[in-house]
Structure formats: structure tokens, C-alpha cells
Design goal:
The complex is a heterodimer. By secondary structure, chain A is α/β, with parallel strands linked by helices. Chain A is built from 13 helices and 15 strands. The radius of gyration of chain A is 22 Å and the shape is globular. Classes of the chains: A alpha/beta, B mainly alpha. At the A-B interface, α2, β7, α8, α9 and α10 of A face α1, α9 and α11 of B.
Chain lengths: ~375, ~290
């Protein structure tokens, strides 16, 4: 069929409208953006899968107040410049709530737009502090970097009983926030940062850092980063003969980290939100269902988007899905809710409190190592 | 000892840059094209090498396969992308080249997945040789050997063979070379072949060194390669090699001493700016 003549176009548009409108009116549409292409595409895919699983589960159980949920997915490529048009598109389409399954760059750029439009915006796992500071419509279901850095200090000082630490810090907001939190809490646990090296997002060759770590000879290494740079980094450290224990972050919480670093990943300990050996039913069910549905192990990123969808659905059950201001109030009132990432609630800033799960890699799998449930140490900022 | 180790790390990085940049400078010398898409050839080499190594367990087979695949792709890019637009201004070819790079990067992502792959058994990577207080793994040693051997072979080719003479004649004046019976088209294909084999082998070596092969692995090294050929004095082969090694060493020390100030890739371009301020014609380029 040629679409050149205006009349054909009109007919096509009318047909499209006729089929599209009734479906759209029935479903509750939730905005969801993630980096589906570009450098962060792997986390984007995982994030989307976590959200999709949540929607499928909720819909299979009858939906929300009798209506089915539907994700309106957009690709932000992990780039801040994609976030504004994407946010405006959601607002133009009249969506009442949006979830970010993306990194800090795009999320931070979109936050102000959603705040101005008074649309609740839930950040699943981006960690930049300014996101929730954009206003009272902003929420975050993951740890802030500082909080996670503090958890790592307690782990190193109290459980591992090590003192001299070398930080290998990824030079972006994620790495810097972790490093700042770590250094801030170090003194309280007698931990001493003897050296710190930063590296760039795109770096995969760490020969000079490996040589420096060997020279410094620390008792333990604290490494921020993602699987695609942390994986090669850990492998190169171990191949270079560095034997000190390695403590990582939720950035390593993916089977891709293990499949890249292979044997070098053994014994690496991470701070994260997902306990593979959990007894909490909601977390257990998420882990099992995710593996069944997608044929890969569950990951923090997916657990976080799964959590965000469930937080939204719970709020909609209370106040309906059509008033974004009421939705905001209902989300803000979330308390001690059991979800895939544990028991969560929001503080006045929209930040989450939850326990930090400490996992260790054993036999190529993440296993329980410890849990840090310390409301004072892990308290997120309130302003 | 620590400084010697940093120096060695930098020399090895420099060798990988040299293998990439030599091809870029060859193509530039011949056609005045900034062949950014060389990075695609590099990445293809790395993927083919990894798949063959993981499948057969043989690194030798991996290098041969990677060299062949890369050696086929390079001339193909010339034939399909550059040749039809040779009469256009150079920036047209540059834009086309960037287009190929972007398209192929997402192509790799579609075919091999976004996650990156690592070698099932990377014994070169896990085997270290220790001399005194220094340790180098076998990948680093092989990178140095491969770079030296391949570049020597290239030098022999350029100075001692008929094809090499034809190649040099075409670089200095294609019209006159053609009137003496040199097949200019053949020389161009050959140059792309040589540049691509070098890039493909470098791809496998860098994949082994990083213990990771991923869709975007070529783009940084390619843009850096452009900086290097400018540094060396455009089209100047010894200058390119010198610039590669210097840049590797500057980066190795810079990633440790300037890490709080700038990223590794920023160091490369900072170095470029500083050198061009002092020697606008490049390290070994002749002033006009």
C-alpha cells in the first residue's frame, strides 16, 4: 500500500486511532525509560526486564483496581541530552507517573522537568544526590552512593577487620559519591585510606594502576565501577599478583561481572540490595521468577526497577491512577513495604531506607555474606 | 622499580597504538582519508579472535582467523565506501567513515550482545614472568614482540619488495606511478589489507590484554589513532611510531599522577595540544 496520497494517510490514521484508543483507555500507562542502546545498553536491558516482570506479575494477578498496567518504554541511550525530549513526550501523552531505569545523567536531566509538571518520578537505581533534591515529586528506590560507601567501611572495619585501604574509584558521580561516603565514615571504624586512584568510564587497561597497587600493598581494596570496567580491573589485578581482598559495590551485582572476571571474581565481596540466599518471600520470589522468566540470574538493577513498579502499583491501589498529586502523596507514604529489594520506606526527601546486603562470590555465584542493618549509619540525607 | 614498571606498561600501550596508527597513516598518506572506521576492523578482529580461541582453544588459529577477517573487511570498506566518493572533498570520506564506525558498533552489539565477552582461557593473561622486581604477563610480552616483528616486516616490504616500491611511488605521485604501469587501485587495496591485518591482530591482543572484547572497544583507540598521526606529522611513518610510544608512556604515568585532574583519554588530547603548540608540524613532520 502506498502512503503517498492524503486520503490513504487519513484512512490509516483513522484506523490506527480506532484500534489504539480503547486499549489505551483501559490500561494504566506508566512511563519507563532506560539506556536500551549505547554504552549502558546491558544495564538498560536488565532494568527493562525487571520492570516487565513486575508488570506481568501484577497483570496476571488481576492488575490494579481491575485495570492492566502497561509500560511506555523509551530509550535514553544513557545520555542526558535524550532525557528532555523524552520527558516532554511523556508529559505530552498525559502520563501520570514515570520510572527511570537509567543512570544518573539522563535521570538528573529529566528530574526537573517532571517536578515542574508535578508528575511523580521514581529513580530505580541512579545514585546522584541532586535527583531527589529536584523536589517533592522525586523518589529513589536504591541506595545513594554515600550510604553505600559507609556500609562498605563498616564491612571492612568490623567484619573483615582490615585497616589500610586503597580506593580504586570510577571517575563519575557513582564512583565519587561512593568514595566520599567511604572517606567520611572511615575514621569511625578505624579504617585508613592510604591511597586512591581514579579511572575513567571508558578505561579497560589498568596496567599502571595494578603496578601502583602492588607498590602500595594495601590490606584491602575498595573498588567502584561497573562490570564492564570493574570486571577487567579485578581480572588484571589478580593476574598481576594482587592478593588483597576486594570489596566492590552494587555496580558489580551482575552475572556479567562474573562471566568477564571469571576465576578472578572468586572471593570478591560487594555491598548491594539483593540477597540471593534471602528468606524474605518477596525477594525470594523475585529472584526465582526472574530466573525462570529470562533464563539468567537476577540482578540488583532488575530488582530495583521491579521494586519501583511495585511501589507505583501499591500507590495506585490506594488512590487510583489518574491524579498525579494524589499518587505522589501515596508513594511518599510508603512504609515498611516488602519488595524485591527488601523492606523499604521513603524519608522526607524521597530517599529509601533499607538494609545493605553483603554478598560474596563463591563458585561463580553471589552468596550471602552478611547484612548491615544500621539505621543510623545507613540513614540517607533528608535534605 | 615502580617507575620502570610504569614505563613498561606505557611501552606496551604504545605498541598497540603503533599497530593501529600505522594503518591510519598509510591510508592517510595514500588517499588523504582519515580512516576512523579502522576501529571497526580492529573490533571485528577481536571478536573473531575471541570466538575462534574459545571454540578451538588455539590462540594461533585465533590470530590467523582474526587477521584474515580483518584483512578482508578493510579492502571491502575501501571498495564499497571510499572508492565511490574519492573525487569528493576529504571530509565526505571522513563522515562516511564515522558512519561506518557507528553502524558497525551497533551491528556488533546486535550480533554479539551488549555485554562484552572474555576469553574462556586466557593463559597469556594469567601467566606472568618476573624479572627482578618487575612482572609482565605474556600478553604484554607478545604485544611488544608482535609490534616489533610486524613493523619490521612492513619496513622490509616498503623498502625491499617491488610492491613496496610501487606503494611508495603511488604515495608520492599516483598519476606518474600509474603511467609507469603501477596499478594504483591494487596498491590502495593492498594498503587497506596491510592496515587491516595489523588492526585485526592488534584487536585480538588488546582483547587479551583487557580480558574483554566489547562492541565499543574500537572507537577510543581509533580517535586516539587520529591524534597520534597528527602528532607524528601526518603521513610520516617514523613520526607516527614515535608518537604512539610516547603517548603510551605519557598515559601510563598520567593515569597514576594526573588521575584526579583528567581522564586517560583527555591526557592523550592534552599531550596532542601541547606538542602541536611547540611543534605545529608534528614530532617528525617537516615545517613548510
Amino acid at each position: 500500500m502506498s502512503l503517498k496520497s492524503p486520503s490513504t494517510l487519513l484512512v490509516a490514521a483513522a484506523l490506527a486511532a480506532a484500534f489504539a484508543v480503547p486499549a489505551a483507555a483501559q490500561n494504566i500507562r506508566i512511563g519507563f525509560h532506560a539506556p536500551l542502546t549505547g554504552f549502558a545498553a546491558s544495564d538498560g536491558k536488565t532494568a527493562l526486564q525487571g520492570a516487565e516482570l513486575a508488570v506481568e506479575q501484577i497483570n496476571a494477578a488481576g492488575g490494579v483496581n481491575g485495570r492492566k498496567l502497561e509500560l511506555v518504554v523509551q530509550d535514553d541511550q544513557g545520555k542526558p541530552d535524550q532525557a528532555l525530549p523524552l520527558a516532554n513526550k511523556y508529559i505530552g501523552e498525559g502520563l501520570k507517573v514515570v520510572i527511570s531505569g537509567s543512570y544518573s545523567g539522563p535521570t538528573r536531566a529529566a528530574a526537573g522537568v517532571f517536578q515542574n509538571a508535578r508528575i511523580p518520578y521514581i529513580t530505580a537505581y541512579a545514585i546522584h544526590p541532586d535527583i531527589t533534591r529536584a523536589g517533592n515529586f522525586m523518589f529513589r528506590t536504591s541506595f545513594m552512593g554515600e550510604v553505600q560507601g559507609r556500609a562498605a567501611v563498616k564491612l571492612i572495619g568490623d567484619s573483615l577487620k582490615k585497616r589500610k585501604v586503597t580506593l580504586l574509584t570510577l571517575n563519575n558521580d557513582f564512583g565519587q559519591a561512593l568514595s566520599a561516603g567511604f572517606k567520611e565514615a572511615a575514621g569511625k571504624f578505624g579504617v585508613q585510606v592510604t591511597s586512591e586512584y581514579t579511572y575513567a568510564m571508558g578505561d579497560r587497561q589498568f596496567g599502571s594502576i595494578v603496578a601502583s597497587v602492588k607498590k602500595d600493598d594495601p590490606e584491602v581494596l575498595y573498588i567502584s565501577g561497573y562490570f564492564f570496567n570493574g570486571g577487567p580491573l579485578v581480572a588484571q589485578l589478580r593476574a598481576g599478583g594482587v592478593t588483597a581482598p576486594i570489596v566492590g559495590t552494587e555496580g558489580f551485582d551482575t552475572h556479567n561481572f562474573i562471566s568477564i572476571a571469571k576465576d578472578a571474581a572468586e572471593g570478591v565481596i560487594i555491598t548491594t540490595s539483593l540477597d540471593r540466599d534471602t528468606k524474605l518471600p518477596e525477594m525470594r520470589q523475585f529472584i526465582d521468577d526472574y530466573e525462570k522468566r529470562f533464563n539468567v540470574g537476577a540482578e540488583m538493577v532488575a530488582a530495583s526497577t521491579h521494586t519501583a513498579v511495585n511501589v507505583v502499583a501499591a500507590a495506585m491501589r490506594k488512590v487510583g491512577a489518574d491524579d498525579s498529586v494524589k499518587l505522589r502523596e501515596a508513594i511518599a507514604a510508603t512504609k515498611d513495604m516488602a519488595v524485591a529489594t527488601g523492606r523499604i520506606g521513603f524519608n522526607a526527601l524521597g530517599e529509601v531506607y533499607k538494609a545493605a546486603q553483603i554478598q560474596i562470590i563463591k563458585g561463580g555465584k553471589f552468596r550471602y555474606y552478611a547484612v548491615i542493618d544500621d539505621p543510623v549509619l545507613l540513614a540517607p540525607p533528608t535534605k | 622499580m615502580y617507575y620502570v614498571e610504569l614505563l613498561l606498561v606505557g611501552l606496551v600501550w604504545g605498541c598497540t597504538y603503533a599497530m593501529m596508527a600505522l594503518g591510519l597513516t598509510l591510508v592517510y598518506g595514500l588517499l588523504r582519508i582519515l580512516h576512523v572506521a579502522q576501529a571497526t576492523v580492529f573490533t571485528l578482529g577481536a571478536y573473531v579472535g575471541l570466538l575462534v580461541a574459545n571454540h578451538t582453544g588455539s590462540l594461533a588459529a585465533a590470530f590467523v582467523a582474526a587477521g584474515l577477517a580483518a584483512g578482508a573487511l578493510g579492502p571491502l570498506i575501501y571498495r564499497l565506501v571510499y572508492q565511490p566518493i574519492l573525487d569528493k572533498p576529504p571530509f565526505v570520506a571522513l563522515v562516511a567513515s564515522i558512519g561506518v564506525l557507528i553502524a558497525m558498533e551497533d551491528g556488533f552489539r546486535l550480533v554479539f550482545g551488549p555485554y562484552g565477552l572474555s576469553f574462556a582461557k586466557n593463559t597469556w593473561f594469567t601467566t606472568s614472568l618476573r624479572f627482578g622486581g618487575l612482572s609482565l604477563n605474556l600478553v604484554q610480552i607478545w604485544i611488544a614482540i608482535a609490534a616489533v616483528v610486524l613493523l619490521l616486516l612492513f619496513a622490509l616490504f616498503a623498502t625491499r619488495t617491488r610492491a613496496g616500491v610501487a606503494w611508495r611511488a603511488t604515495v608520492s605521485d599516483p598519476a606518474i606511478a600509474e603511467s609507469f604501469g603501477v596499478s594504483v587501485s591494487g596498491v590502495r587495496h593492498l594498503s587497506f589489507f596491510i592496515a587491516s591485518v595489523l588492526a585485526g591482530v592488534a584487536g585480538v591482543l588488546v582483547g587479551l590484554l583487557n580480558n574483554l572484547v566489547e562492541p565499543g572497544m574500537g572507537s577510543v583507540i581509533s580517535y586516539k589513532g587520529l591524534a597520534i598521526i597528527v602528532l607524528g606529522g601526518l603521513g610520516n611513518v617514523p613520526g607516527t611510531l614515535l608518537a604512539s610510544v610516547l603517548l603510551g608512556v605519557v598515559e601510563s604515568f598520567g593515569t597514576v599522577y594526573l588521575d584526579k585532574v583528567m581522564d586517560r583519554d583527555a591526557i592523550a588530547f592534552m599531550f596532542l595540544i601541547v606538542v602541536l603548540m611547540i611543534r605545529p608540524q608534528g614530532l617528525l613532520g617537516k615545517a613548510h
